Protein backbone atom coordinates (compact mmCIF):
# COMPACT_ATOMS: atom_id res chain seq x y z
CA UNK A 1 0.00 0.00 0.00
CA UNK A 2 1.13 3.51 -0.66
CA UNK A 3 2.45 4.83 2.64
CA UNK A 4 0.35 7.53 4.24
CA UNK A 5 -2.74 7.09 2.05
CA UNK A 6 -4.75 4.52 3.96
CA UNK A 7 -7.07 5.34 6.81
CA UNK A 8 -8.11 2.25 8.75
CA UNK A 9 -11.43 0.94 7.41
CA UNK A 10 -11.62 -1.53 4.59
CA UNK A 11 -13.81 0.71 2.46
CA UNK A 12 -11.56 3.73 2.94
CA UNK A 13 -8.55 1.58 2.05
CA UNK A 14 -10.21 0.50 -1.18
CA UNK A 15 -11.12 4.09 -1.96
CA UNK A 16 -7.57 5.26 -1.25
CA UNK A 17 -6.09 2.48 -3.36
CA UNK A 18 -8.38 3.37 -6.22
CA UNK A 19 -7.38 7.01 -5.83
CA UNK A 20 -3.68 6.02 -5.88
CA UNK A 21 -4.13 3.88 -8.98
CA UNK A 22 -5.97 6.58 -10.91
CA UNK A 23 -3.48 9.27 -9.88
CA UNK A 24 -0.41 7.15 -10.63
CA UNK A 25 -1.81 5.99 -13.99
CA UNK A 26 -2.57 9.57 -15.04
CA UNK A 27 0.83 10.79 -13.88
CA UNK A 28 2.83 8.00 -15.53
CA UNK A 29 1.01 8.55 -18.81
CA UNK A 30 1.83 12.25 -18.65
CA UNK A 31 5.43 11.51 -17.67
CA UNK A 32 5.92 9.17 -20.63
CA UNK A 33 4.64 11.86 -23.01
CA UNK A 34 6.89 14.45 -21.38
CA UNK A 35 9.85 12.11 -21.59
CA UNK A 36 9.30 11.51 -25.31
CA UNK A 37 9.55 15.27 -25.82
CA UNK A 38 12.58 15.54 -23.53
CA UNK A 39 14.37 12.66 -25.28
CA UNK A 40 13.85 14.35 -28.66
CA UNK A 41 15.19 17.65 -27.30
CA UNK A 42 18.27 15.95 -25.78
CA UNK A 43 19.10 14.16 -29.02
CA UNK A 44 18.61 17.30 -31.09
CA UNK A 45 20.29 19.92 -28.90
CA UNK A 46 22.85 18.20 -26.63
CA UNK A 47 26.18 17.33 -28.29
CA UNK A 48 27.02 13.63 -28.39
CA UNK A 49 30.41 12.59 -26.99
CA UNK A 50 31.77 9.29 -28.28
CA UNK A 51 33.10 7.02 -25.56
CA UNK A 52 32.54 3.35 -26.39
CA UNK A 53 30.49 3.56 -29.61
CA UNK A 54 33.45 3.30 -31.99
CA UNK A 55 34.85 0.40 -29.97
CA UNK A 56 31.48 -1.35 -30.08
CA UNK A 57 31.30 -0.93 -33.85
CA UNK A 58 34.87 -2.21 -34.33
CA UNK A 59 34.10 -5.30 -32.29
CA UNK A 60 30.89 -5.88 -34.23
CA UNK A 61 32.74 -5.44 -37.53
CA UNK A 62 35.16 -8.17 -36.51
CA UNK A 63 32.30 -10.49 -35.61
CA UNK A 64 30.38 -9.77 -38.81
CA UNK A 65 33.61 -10.28 -40.75
CA UNK A 66 33.74 -13.88 -39.53
CA UNK A 67 36.07 -13.62 -36.52
CA UNK A 68 35.14 -16.11 -33.79
CA UNK A 69 38.25 -15.91 -31.61
CA UNK A 70 37.36 -13.57 -28.73
CA UNK A 71 41.00 -12.69 -28.22
CA UNK A 72 40.99 -11.05 -31.67
CA UNK A 73 37.80 -9.00 -31.20
CA UNK A 74 39.01 -5.57 -30.14
CA UNK A 75 38.19 -1.87 -30.32
CA UNK A 76 39.99 1.36 -29.57
CA UNK A 77 39.17 0.98 -25.85
CA UNK A 78 40.59 -2.54 -25.67
CA UNK A 79 39.49 -6.16 -26.13
CA UNK A 80 35.87 -7.30 -26.12
CA UNK A 81 34.87 -8.25 -22.56
CA UNK A 82 31.12 -8.87 -22.97
CA UNK A 83 29.35 -12.19 -23.71
CA UNK A 84 27.96 -13.05 -27.11
CA UNK A 85 24.55 -11.44 -26.62
CA UNK A 86 26.28 -8.06 -26.79
CA UNK A 87 27.53 -8.82 -30.30
CA UNK A 88 24.11 -9.88 -31.54
CA UNK A 89 22.40 -6.80 -30.09
CA UNK A 90 24.91 -4.33 -31.47
CA UNK A 91 25.06 -6.13 -34.81
CA UNK A 92 21.30 -5.55 -35.05
CA UNK A 93 21.80 -1.91 -34.05
CA UNK A 94 24.50 -1.51 -36.71
CA UNK A 95 22.18 -3.05 -39.30
CA UNK A 96 19.35 -0.67 -38.37
CA UNK A 97 21.50 2.45 -38.10
CA UNK A 98 24.31 1.83 -40.54
CA UNK A 99 26.67 2.43 -37.65
CA UNK A 100 25.67 6.11 -37.51
CA UNK A 101 25.31 7.81 -34.16
CA UNK A 102 22.13 9.84 -34.71
CA UNK A 103 19.88 6.90 -35.70
CA UNK A 104 21.39 4.93 -32.83
CA UNK A 105 20.51 7.76 -30.45
CA UNK A 106 16.92 7.61 -31.65
CA UNK A 107 16.89 3.85 -31.05
CA UNK A 108 18.24 4.33 -27.54
CA UNK A 109 15.71 7.07 -26.92
CA UNK A 110 12.98 4.55 -27.75
CA UNK A 111 14.74 2.03 -25.51
CA UNK A 112 14.73 4.56 -22.66
CA UNK A 113 10.97 5.09 -23.02
CA UNK A 114 10.36 1.32 -23.15
CA UNK A 115 12.50 0.77 -20.06
CA UNK A 116 10.75 3.58 -18.20
CA UNK A 117 7.36 2.15 -19.14
CA UNK A 118 8.38 -1.26 -17.78
CA UNK A 119 9.65 0.32 -14.57
CA UNK A 120 6.36 2.21 -14.18
CA UNK A 121 4.47 -1.07 -14.54
CA UNK A 122 6.63 -2.66 -11.83
CA UNK A 123 5.98 0.21 -9.44
CA UNK A 124 2.26 0.27 -10.19
CA UNK A 125 2.09 -3.46 -9.49
CA UNK A 126 3.56 -3.17 -6.01
CA UNK A 127 1.93 0.05 -4.78
CA UNK A 128 4.81 1.25 -2.56
CA UNK A 129 5.42 4.84 -3.67
CA UNK A 130 3.00 7.72 -3.19
CA UNK A 131 1.68 8.59 -6.64
CA UNK A 132 3.61 11.86 -6.90
CA UNK A 133 6.96 10.11 -6.28
CA UNK A 134 6.83 8.49 -9.74
CA UNK A 135 8.31 11.78 -10.94
CA UNK A 136 11.61 10.82 -9.29
CA UNK A 137 12.09 8.08 -11.87
CA UNK A 138 12.44 10.78 -14.54
CA UNK A 139 14.74 13.20 -12.72
CA UNK A 140 18.22 11.83 -13.40
CA UNK A 141 20.41 13.90 -15.68
CA UNK A 142 23.06 11.18 -15.62
CA UNK A 143 20.68 8.38 -16.65
CA UNK A 144 19.36 10.41 -19.60
CA UNK A 145 22.97 10.88 -20.66
CA UNK A 146 23.77 7.17 -20.29
CA UNK A 147 20.93 6.23 -22.63
CA UNK A 148 20.81 8.96 -25.27
CA UNK A 149 24.31 10.44 -25.23
CA UNK A 150 26.48 7.39 -24.54
CA UNK A 151 24.61 4.38 -26.04
CA UNK A 152 26.08 1.99 -23.45
CA UNK A 153 25.16 -1.69 -23.43
CA UNK A 154 24.17 -1.23 -19.77
CA UNK A 155 20.95 0.32 -21.10
CA UNK A 156 20.03 -2.81 -23.05
CA UNK A 157 20.95 -5.16 -20.22
CA UNK A 158 18.95 -3.26 -17.60
CA UNK A 159 15.89 -2.93 -19.82
CA UNK A 160 15.92 -6.71 -20.26
CA UNK A 161 16.43 -7.18 -16.52
CA UNK A 162 13.43 -5.00 -15.72
CA UNK A 163 11.38 -6.96 -18.25
CA UNK A 164 12.41 -10.19 -16.52
CA UNK A 165 11.39 -8.73 -13.15
CA UNK A 166 7.98 -7.77 -14.51
CA UNK A 167 7.48 -11.37 -15.62
CA UNK A 168 8.47 -12.58 -12.15
CA UNK A 169 5.68 -10.48 -10.66
CA UNK A 170 3.21 -12.57 -12.66
CA UNK A 171 4.93 -15.88 -11.80
CA UNK A 172 6.27 -16.38 -15.34
CA UNK A 173 9.44 -18.00 -14.04
CA UNK A 174 10.70 -19.74 -17.17
CA UNK A 175 10.19 -16.71 -19.38
CA UNK A 176 11.80 -14.50 -16.75
CA UNK A 177 14.85 -16.75 -16.46
CA UNK A 178 15.29 -16.84 -20.23
CA UNK A 179 15.21 -13.05 -20.48
CA UNK A 180 17.41 -12.74 -17.39
CA UNK A 181 20.01 -15.01 -19.00
CA UNK A 182 19.82 -13.02 -22.23
CA UNK A 183 20.45 -9.84 -20.20
CA UNK A 184 23.53 -11.47 -18.65
CA UNK A 185 24.77 -12.20 -22.16
CA UNK A 186 24.67 -8.47 -22.92
CA UNK A 187 26.48 -7.40 -19.74
CA UNK A 188 27.62 -9.36 -16.71
CA UNK A 189 26.48 -6.83 -14.10
CA UNK A 190 23.03 -8.47 -14.24
CA UNK A 191 24.57 -11.33 -12.23
CA UNK A 192 24.30 -9.10 -9.16
CA UNK A 193 20.60 -10.03 -9.26
CA UNK A 194 21.39 -13.77 -9.43
CA UNK A 195 21.67 -14.55 -5.67
CA UNK A 196 18.34 -12.89 -4.77
CA UNK A 197 16.72 -14.48 -7.82
CA UNK A 198 17.92 -17.92 -6.75
CA UNK A 199 16.52 -17.33 -3.27
CA UNK A 200 13.13 -16.40 -4.74
CA UNK A 201 13.19 -19.56 -6.82
CA UNK A 202 13.84 -21.62 -3.68
CA UNK A 203 10.84 -19.97 -2.04
CA UNK A 204 8.45 -20.26 -4.98
CA UNK A 205 9.32 -23.30 -7.06
CA UNK A 206 9.54 -27.04 -6.66
CA UNK A 207 12.88 -28.77 -7.23
CA UNK A 208 11.72 -29.70 -10.70
CA UNK A 209 10.75 -26.10 -11.40
CA UNK A 210 14.11 -24.77 -10.21
CA UNK A 211 16.07 -27.25 -12.30
CA UNK A 212 13.93 -26.55 -15.34
CA UNK A 213 14.40 -22.77 -15.01
CA UNK A 214 18.15 -23.07 -14.47
CA UNK A 215 18.42 -25.38 -17.46
CA UNK A 216 16.54 -22.86 -19.60
CA UNK A 217 18.89 -20.08 -18.50
CA UNK A 218 21.98 -22.20 -19.13
CA UNK A 219 20.68 -23.21 -22.54
CA UNK A 220 20.40 -19.54 -23.54
CA UNK A 221 24.07 -19.02 -22.71
CA UNK A 222 25.13 -22.11 -24.64
CA UNK A 223 23.08 -21.25 -27.74
CA UNK A 224 24.24 -17.63 -27.83
CA UNK A 225 27.87 -18.57 -27.27
CA UNK A 226 27.88 -21.62 -29.54
CA UNK A 227 29.71 -20.06 -32.53
CA UNK A 228 32.57 -19.15 -30.19
CA UNK A 229 32.42 -22.19 -27.93
CA UNK A 230 32.74 -24.59 -30.85
CA UNK A 231 35.95 -23.00 -32.18
CA UNK A 232 37.67 -21.09 -29.38
CA UNK A 233 35.98 -22.05 -26.08
CA UNK A 234 38.86 -21.02 -23.80
CA UNK A 235 39.16 -17.54 -25.32
CA UNK A 236 35.40 -17.00 -25.15
CA UNK A 237 34.93 -18.11 -21.55
CA UNK A 238 38.01 -16.29 -20.23
CA UNK A 239 37.20 -13.02 -22.02
CA UNK A 240 33.41 -12.89 -21.87
CA UNK A 241 33.06 -14.08 -18.27
CA UNK A 242 36.10 -12.51 -16.65
CA UNK A 243 35.09 -11.67 -13.08
CA UNK A 244 38.56 -10.47 -12.10
CA UNK A 245 38.82 -7.33 -14.20
CA UNK A 246 40.58 -4.36 -12.60
CA UNK A 247 39.06 -0.98 -13.47
CA UNK A 248 40.95 2.28 -13.75
CA UNK A 249 41.01 4.26 -10.50
CA UNK A 250 40.45 7.60 -12.24
CA UNK A 251 37.04 6.62 -13.65
CA UNK A 252 35.64 5.20 -10.42
CA UNK A 253 32.74 7.08 -8.87
CA UNK A 254 32.99 5.12 -5.61
CA UNK A 255 36.03 4.33 -3.47
CA UNK A 256 37.90 7.23 -5.07
CA UNK A 257 39.09 8.09 -1.56
CA UNK A 258 41.07 4.83 -1.46
CA UNK A 259 44.70 5.18 -2.64
CA UNK A 260 45.22 3.70 -6.10
CA UNK A 261 47.66 1.01 -4.96
CA UNK A 262 45.04 -0.28 -2.51
CA UNK A 263 42.18 0.23 -4.98
CA UNK A 264 43.71 -2.15 -7.54
CA UNK A 265 44.88 -4.71 -4.97
CA UNK A 266 43.52 -8.22 -4.72
CA UNK A 267 43.15 -7.74 -0.99
CA UNK A 268 40.53 -5.01 -1.43
CA UNK A 269 38.70 -7.09 -4.05
CA UNK A 270 38.65 -10.11 -1.72
CA UNK A 271 37.51 -8.03 1.27
CA UNK A 272 34.64 -6.50 -0.70
CA UNK A 273 33.59 -9.93 -1.96
CA UNK A 274 33.49 -11.27 1.61
CA UNK A 275 31.46 -8.24 2.74
CA UNK A 276 29.10 -8.67 -0.23
CA UNK A 277 28.43 -12.33 0.52
CA UNK A 278 28.11 -11.68 4.26
CA UNK A 279 25.54 -8.92 3.76
CA UNK A 280 23.55 -11.11 1.38
CA UNK A 281 23.52 -13.95 3.92
CA UNK A 282 22.50 -11.62 6.76
CA UNK A 283 19.65 -10.07 4.80
CA UNK A 284 18.56 -13.47 3.49
CA UNK A 285 18.53 -15.06 6.95
CA UNK A 286 17.09 -12.26 9.06
CA UNK A 287 14.94 -10.33 6.55
CA UNK A 288 13.98 -12.19 3.39
CA UNK A 289 13.48 -15.62 5.00
CA UNK A 290 12.15 -14.45 8.37
CA UNK A 291 8.73 -16.05 7.83
CA UNK A 292 10.37 -19.34 6.83
CA UNK A 293 12.38 -19.48 10.06
CA UNK A 294 15.59 -18.20 8.49
CA UNK A 295 17.69 -19.05 5.46
CA UNK A 296 19.09 -22.31 6.80
CA UNK A 297 15.68 -23.59 7.81
CA UNK A 298 14.42 -22.84 4.30
CA UNK A 299 17.38 -24.66 2.74
CA UNK A 300 16.92 -27.68 4.99
CA UNK A 301 13.19 -27.90 4.31
CA UNK A 302 13.71 -27.66 0.57
CA UNK A 303 16.51 -30.24 0.67
CA UNK A 304 14.31 -32.67 2.59
CA UNK A 305 11.47 -32.06 0.17
CA UNK A 306 13.80 -32.66 -2.78
CA UNK A 307 14.99 -35.97 -1.31
CA UNK A 308 11.42 -37.15 -0.76
CA UNK A 309 10.43 -36.21 -4.29
CA UNK A 310 13.47 -37.89 -5.84
CA UNK A 311 12.83 -41.08 -3.88
CA UNK A 312 9.36 -41.18 -5.41
CA UNK A 313 10.33 -40.33 -8.96
CA UNK A 314 6.75 -40.28 -10.25
CA UNK A 315 5.85 -37.64 -7.67
CA UNK A 316 8.87 -35.63 -8.78
CA UNK A 317 7.98 -35.82 -12.47
CA UNK A 318 4.32 -34.85 -12.06
CA UNK A 319 4.63 -32.24 -9.33
CA UNK A 320 3.55 -28.73 -10.26
CA UNK A 321 6.40 -26.26 -10.77
CA UNK A 322 4.97 -23.46 -8.61
CA UNK A 323 4.37 -24.34 -4.96
CA UNK A 324 4.12 -20.80 -3.56
CA UNK A 325 2.87 -17.61 -5.17
CA UNK A 326 5.10 -14.84 -3.85
CA UNK A 327 3.83 -11.36 -3.15
CA UNK A 328 4.93 -8.85 -5.76
CA UNK A 329 6.37 -6.44 -3.23
CA UNK A 330 8.49 -9.22 -1.75
CA UNK A 331 9.88 -10.17 -5.16
CA UNK A 332 10.85 -6.59 -5.94
CA UNK A 333 12.29 -6.03 -2.47
CA UNK A 334 14.55 -9.08 -2.61
CA UNK A 335 15.71 -8.32 -6.16
CA UNK A 336 16.33 -4.60 -5.70
CA UNK A 337 17.93 -4.85 -2.24
CA UNK A 338 20.11 -7.78 -3.31
CA UNK A 339 21.38 -5.80 -6.28
CA UNK A 340 21.89 -2.70 -4.12
CA UNK A 341 24.11 -4.68 -1.75
CA UNK A 342 26.22 -5.63 -4.76
CA UNK A 343 26.40 -1.98 -5.81
CA UNK A 344 27.67 -0.94 -2.38
CA UNK A 345 30.37 -3.64 -2.45
CA UNK A 346 31.47 -3.08 -6.04
CA UNK A 347 35.11 -2.03 -6.12
CA UNK A 348 34.54 0.34 -9.02
CA UNK A 349 31.42 2.07 -10.30
CA UNK A 350 31.83 3.87 -13.61
CA UNK A 351 29.35 6.56 -14.60
CA UNK A 352 27.25 4.26 -16.78
CA UNK A 353 26.86 1.87 -13.83
CA UNK A 354 24.38 4.29 -12.27
CA UNK A 355 21.79 2.74 -14.56
CA UNK A 356 22.28 -0.52 -12.66
CA UNK A 357 20.28 0.76 -9.69
CA UNK A 358 18.90 4.25 -10.29
CA UNK A 359 15.42 2.97 -11.18
CA UNK A 360 15.31 1.02 -7.89
CA UNK A 361 16.22 4.03 -5.73
CA UNK A 362 12.67 5.34 -5.13
CA UNK A 363 11.53 1.86 -4.11
CA UNK A 364 14.52 1.39 -1.79
CA UNK A 365 13.98 4.80 -0.19
CA UNK A 366 10.27 4.24 0.40
CA UNK A 367 10.97 0.84 1.94
CA UNK A 368 12.95 2.60 4.65
CA UNK A 369 11.14 4.06 7.68
CA UNK A 370 12.74 7.47 7.10
CA UNK A 371 10.60 10.63 6.84
CA UNK A 372 9.81 11.71 3.29
CA UNK A 373 12.12 14.72 3.49
CA UNK A 374 15.06 12.43 4.38
CA UNK A 375 14.19 10.12 1.49
CA UNK A 376 14.19 13.05 -0.92
CA UNK A 377 17.49 14.37 0.45
CA UNK A 378 19.10 10.94 0.06
CA UNK A 379 17.79 10.71 -3.50
CA UNK A 380 19.13 14.17 -4.36
CA UNK A 381 22.45 13.41 -2.70
CA UNK A 382 23.01 10.23 -4.70
CA UNK A 383 22.11 12.01 -7.94
CA UNK A 384 24.44 14.89 -7.05
CA UNK A 385 27.39 12.56 -6.44
CA UNK A 386 26.84 10.82 -9.79
CA UNK A 387 26.89 14.15 -11.62
CA UNK A 388 30.27 15.30 -10.28
CA UNK A 389 32.88 14.85 -13.01
CA UNK A 390 35.51 13.78 -12.41
CA UNK A 391 34.59 12.21 -9.12
CA UNK A 392 36.62 13.24 -6.08
CA UNK A 393 37.63 11.61 -2.83
CA UNK A 394 34.98 13.67 -1.07
CA UNK A 395 32.16 12.89 -3.51
CA UNK A 396 32.90 9.14 -3.42
CA UNK A 397 33.02 9.19 0.38
CA UNK A 398 29.67 11.00 0.50
CA UNK A 399 28.21 8.49 -1.96
CA UNK A 400 29.33 5.59 0.25
CA UNK A 401 27.78 7.30 3.28
CA UNK A 402 24.48 7.78 1.41
CA UNK A 403 24.47 4.16 0.24
CA UNK A 404 25.13 2.87 3.75
CA UNK A 405 22.41 5.13 5.15
CA UNK A 406 19.89 3.66 2.70
CA UNK A 407 21.06 0.14 3.54
CA UNK A 408 20.62 0.85 7.24
CA UNK A 409 17.11 2.10 6.58
CA UNK A 410 16.35 -1.10 4.67
CA UNK A 411 17.71 -3.18 7.54
CA UNK A 412 15.47 -1.56 10.15
CA UNK A 413 12.41 -1.50 7.88
CA UNK A 414 9.40 -3.77 8.54
CA UNK A 415 9.53 -7.22 6.96
CA UNK A 416 6.90 -7.78 4.32
CA UNK A 417 4.83 -10.97 4.12
CA UNK A 418 6.42 -13.08 1.36
CA UNK A 419 3.62 -15.48 0.43
CA UNK A 420 0.52 -14.36 -1.43
CA UNK A 421 -1.03 -17.77 -1.88
CA UNK A 422 -0.01 -21.39 -1.41
CA UNK A 423 -0.58 -24.06 -4.02
CA UNK A 424 -0.18 -27.77 -3.32
CA UNK A 425 1.63 -30.23 -5.50
CA UNK A 426 -0.70 -32.01 -7.88
CA UNK A 427 0.67 -35.42 -6.93
CA UNK A 428 0.24 -34.76 -3.22
Automatic annotation (TrEMBL):
Origin species, per record, is: Dendrobium nobile (Orchid)
Swiss-Prot/TrEMBL keywords? Endoplasmic reticulum, Glycosyltransferase, Membrane, Transferase, Transmembrane, Transmembrane helix
Localization terms from the record: Endoplasmic reticulum membrane
| Transmembrane annotation, as ranges | 20-46, 106-139, 151-170, 176-202, 209-232, 268-286, 331-350, 396-415
- The Enzyme Commission number assigned here is 2.4.1.258
> What GO molecular-function term can you cite, just one?
dol-P-Man:Man(5)GlcNAc(2)-PP-Dol alpha-1,3-mannosyltransferase activity
Q: What class of enzyme is it?
A: transferase
Topological type in the membrane: Multi-pass membrane protein
**Under which pathway is this protein filed?**
Protein modification; protein glycosylation
What's the protein here called? Answer: dolichyl-P-Man:Man5GlcNAc2-PP-dolichol alpha-1,3-mannosyltransferase
Q: Note the Pfam families from the entry.
A: ALG3
Instruction: Answer yes or no on keyword Glycosyltransferase.
Output: yes
Q: Which reaction does it catalyse?
A: an alpha-D-Man-(1->2)-alpha-D-Man-(1->2)-alpha-D-Man-(1->3)-[alpha-D-Man-(1->6)]-beta-D-Man-(1->4)-beta-D-GlcNAc-(1->4)-alpha-D-GlcNAc-diphospho-di-trans,poly-cis-dolichol + a di-trans,poly-cis-dolichyl beta-D-mannosyl phosphate = an alpha-D-Man-(1->2)-alpha-D-Man-(1->2)-alpha-D-Man-(1->3)-[alpha-D-Man-(1->3)-alpha-D-Man-(1->6)]-beta-D-Man-(1->4)-beta-D-GlcNAc-(1->4)-alpha-D-GlcNAc-diphospho-di-trans,poly-cis-dolichol + a di-trans,poly-cis-dolichyl phosphate + H(+)
One GO cellular component, as annotated: endoplasmic reticulum membrane
Q: In which domain of life is the source organism classified?
A: Eukaryota
* InterPro entries named among the record's database cross-references: Glycosyltransferase_ALG3 (IPR007873)
Amino acid sequence: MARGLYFGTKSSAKYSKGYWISKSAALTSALLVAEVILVALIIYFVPYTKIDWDAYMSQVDGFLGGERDYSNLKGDTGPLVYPAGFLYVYSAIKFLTGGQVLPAQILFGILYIVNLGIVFLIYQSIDVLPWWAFVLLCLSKRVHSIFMLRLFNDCVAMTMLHAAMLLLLYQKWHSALIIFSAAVSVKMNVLLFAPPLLLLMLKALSVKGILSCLLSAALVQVVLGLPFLLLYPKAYISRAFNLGRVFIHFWSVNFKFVPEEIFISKELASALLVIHLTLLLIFAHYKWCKYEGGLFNLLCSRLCDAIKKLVHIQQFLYCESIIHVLRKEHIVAVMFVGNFIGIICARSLHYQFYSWYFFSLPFLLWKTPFPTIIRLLLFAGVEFCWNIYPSTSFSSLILLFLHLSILWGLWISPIEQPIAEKESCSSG
